[in-house]
């Protein structure tokens, strides 16, 4: 049974490997200028070292510069035969491609670096690139592969007694267990990373570990603990004046307060994050923050503002798409210019060939321009269709909610009328008849027996009215919750007719009243169908609530039916069941064959 799992992951997790490229990073503008001078005028070895420093410095600041300086460094490393430096630059470029979302390009760079490091037996560099490959598999949710590469990296760092490397793997590998919902193991790994960072005085590593632990607490609904860890990380990043990490830290705090429904505080943190993101020219974070603020506005009923913020985030995402496409065109153009220069000597005396080549190049560029225009048009059209479809689904959701609420209110009204009106009158009739029974003198014993039979009939009617009133709006559901209400309902079923076994788990905390009411009605309808149609002697009901959501299983040993017969599902009762489960974004499946009984499975995702 598939269920939705809500996942949250702080942005800083993707950056931990950059700590280990810090030996190439630059801190001041003057250092950058001097390094650029060395890259332009130094010896070959000095230029190679400068390009390594520049590419690592810009890896989380300017992806295009990282790739540019990395490629220039690779060219020098190739001419000087420095394979290890070439592998390090491939690794850095791969990280930049990863941050841009070009996972195929990142993968190619990482595996190129890995082959070089294995050939040269560069163990520490090999461990670092294994971590990046694991991170890539983790991003695409291939968690078993990710775990395998993390284990390989950890084995190397342990052999080297490299505490910084082990700290990084403890941090990174914890995310795999977090995605699997194994939060205790994830926190254990993050805590190991935290202790190592504290022992070695690595403030940046302490900040990452605190962020990771906060993410796990948030996923478990432990908001105060998540908040406390993020605030500790924030203070560290302020002390270090780490603008990039501060921007992401503020965004993570906004997400925590959003989850805690403290919307004003959450929006203030997102705004602070955006201010830094703009100065850093980090559009992905800007788009993420706008989407989160749009969600806050929607929760507060500010639908026009929410829509404007959504469009702003969408525009940034579109611009990122266009920048990527433009980069591809520029890359093709650079290749064309290189080929043109290489062929210029051969084509000096062949004017016709040169003209044909130019015409072909212009034709290709025009064709690519047409393709890009068509691609943009398709994206725009699909985006508009998506917005329209979302609005239609929203209206359908509101309509369904209104119908269900009206139905429950009518049930409540009828139940109240039966209990307070008809029930009270029937009770009064019974009391009056009982009084007359003691006062009347019957001429024959047979008359007294008949009169007492009338009193018993009135008594049974009173019980029936109370039972109907209770079924329509059970007090147990309102006061004690779903588990108690269902148990009271099945306990009223005659065991000689149908043996009912009920198992519940994880229902100690109350759910949303809509969810409890809808599930109770669905279970009630299913049990009534078993009693009316299945001719069963045994019925097993299981209701389980866990981190993923709510699962309900109803199994009987009755006569069963053919599920391929569409007419079976045309009844009003089953249609109501499907409507209610759809309202909760869940699903329902029937498994039955004639003579084999019926199994009904219901899955409701966590909201």
Describe this structure as you would to a colleague.
Helix 8 runs parallel beside helix 10, helix 12 runs antiparallel to helix 13 and helix 19 (482-491) packs parallel to helix 20. The chain is of the alpha+beta class. The longest helix has 89 residues, at 351-439. It has 21 helices and five strands. A five-stranded mixed sheet has the order 1-2-3-5-4, with helices on one face. Residues 1-25 and 321-337 have low confidence and may be disordered. It is elongated.
Distance between the termini: 17 Å
Q: What's the oligomerization state?
A: single chain
Q: What shape does the CA trace take?
A: elongated
What is the helix tally?
21
- Structure class: alpha+beta
Uncertain runs with pLDDT below 50, 5 residues or more? 1-25, 321-337
Mean pLDDT: 80
Please report the total strand number as a whole number.
5
The amount of helix comes to over 70%
Q: Secondary-structure element order, as H and E?
A: HHHHHHHHHHHHHHHHHHHEHEEHEE
Strand order of the largest sheet: 1-2-3-5-4
Describe the biggest sheet?
5 strands, mixed
Q: Compute the CA-based radius of gyration.
A: 34 Å
Quick recap of the structure?
This protein is of the alpha+beta class and 607 residues long. It has 21 helices and five strands.
Secondary-structure map:
Elements: H1 29-41, H2 44-57, H3 63-80, H4 83-100, H5 103-120, H6 123-139, H7 143-160, H8 163-179, H9 183-200, H10 203-219, H11 223-240, H12 243-259, H13 263-280, H14 283-299, H15 303-344, H16 351-439, H17 445-472, H18 475-479, H19 482-491, E1 499-505, H20 513-534, E2 538-545, E3 549-556, H21 572-583, E4 587-592, E5 598-605
Parallel strand pairs: 1-2
Antiparallel strand pairs: 2-3, 3-5, 4-5
Helix pairs in contact: 1-2, 2-3, 2-4, 3-4, 4-5, 4-6, 5-6, 6-7, 6-8, 7-8, 8-9, 8-10, 9-10, 10-11, 11-12, 12-13, 12-14, 13-14, 14-15, 15-16, 16-17, 19-20, 20-21
């Amino acid at each position: 049974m598939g269920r939705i799992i809500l996942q949250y992951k702080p942005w800083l997790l993707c950056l931990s490997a950059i700590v280990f490229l810090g030996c190439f990073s630059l801190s001041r503008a003057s250092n950058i200028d001097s390094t650029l001078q060395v890259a332009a005028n130094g010896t070959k070895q000095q230029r190679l070292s400068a390009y390594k420093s520049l590419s690592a410095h810009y890896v989380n600041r300017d992806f295009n510069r990282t790739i540019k300086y990395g490629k220039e460094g690779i060219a020098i490393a190739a001419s000087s035969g420095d394979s290890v430096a070439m592998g390090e630059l491939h690794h850095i470029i791969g990280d930049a491609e990863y941050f841009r979302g070009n996972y195929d390009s990142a993968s190619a760079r990482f595996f190129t670096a890995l082959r070089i490091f294995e050939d040269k037996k560069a163990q520490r560099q090999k461990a670092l690139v294994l971590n990046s490959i694991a991170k890539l598999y983790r991003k695409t949710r291939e968690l078993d592969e990710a775990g395998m590469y993390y284990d390989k990296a950890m084995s190397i760092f342990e052999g080297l007694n490299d505490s910084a490397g082990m700290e990084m793997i403890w941090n990174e590998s914890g995310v795999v267990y977090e995605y699997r919902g194994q939060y205790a193991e994830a926190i254990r790994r993050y805590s190991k990373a935290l202790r190592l960072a504290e022992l070695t005085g690595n403030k940046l590593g302490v900040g990452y570990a605190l962020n990771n632990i906060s993410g796990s607490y948030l996923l478990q609904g432990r908001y105060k603990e998540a908040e406390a860890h993020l605030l500790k990380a924030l203070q560290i990043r302020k002390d270090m004046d780490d603008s990039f990490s501060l921007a992401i830290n503020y965004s993570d705090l906004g997400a925590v307060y959003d989850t805690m429904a403290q919307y004003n505080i959450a929006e203030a943190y997102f705004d602070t994050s955006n201010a830094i993101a703009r100065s850093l020219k980090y559009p992905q974070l800007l788009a993420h923050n706008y989407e989160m603020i749009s969600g806050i506005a929607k929760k507060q009923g500010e639908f026009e503002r929410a829509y404007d913020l959504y469009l702003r985030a969408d525009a940034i995402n579109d611009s990122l798409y266009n920048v990527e496409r433009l980069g591809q065109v520029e890359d093709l153009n650079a290749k064309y210019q290189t080929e043109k220069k290489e062929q210029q000597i051969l084509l000096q005396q062949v004017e016709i060939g040169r003209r044909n080549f130019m015409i072909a190049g212009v034709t290709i560029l025009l064709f690519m321009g047409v393709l890009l225009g068509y691609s943009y048009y398709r994206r725009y059209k699909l985006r508009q269709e998506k917005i329209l479809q979302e609005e239609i689904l929203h209206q359908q959701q509101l309509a369904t909610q209104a119908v269900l609420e009206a139905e429950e209110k009518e049930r409540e009204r009828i139940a109240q009328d039966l209990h307070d009106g008809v029930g009270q009158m029937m009770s009064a009739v019974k009391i009056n008849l009982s009084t007359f029974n003691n006062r009347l003198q019957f001429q024959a014993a047979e008359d007294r027996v008949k009169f007492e039979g009338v009193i018993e009939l009135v008594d049974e009617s009173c019980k029936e009215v109370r039972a109907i009133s209770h079924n329509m709006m059970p007090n147990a559901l309102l006061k004690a919750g779903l588990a108690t209400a269902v148990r009271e309902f099945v306990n009223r079923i005659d065991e000689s007719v149908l043996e009912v076994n009920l198992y519940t788990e994880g229902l100690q905390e109350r759910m949303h009243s809509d969810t409890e009411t809808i599930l109770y009605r669905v279970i009630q309808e299913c049990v009534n169908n078993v009693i009316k149609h299945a001719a069963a002697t045994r019925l097993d009901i299981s209701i389980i609530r866990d981190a993923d959501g709510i699962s309900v299983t109803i199994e009987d040993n009755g006569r069963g039916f053919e599920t391929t017969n569409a007419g079976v599902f045309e009844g009003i009762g089953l249609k109501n069941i499907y409507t209610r489960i759809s309202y909760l974004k869940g699903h329902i499946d029937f498994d039955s064959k004639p003579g084999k009984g019926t199994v009904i499975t219901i899955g409701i995702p966590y909201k």
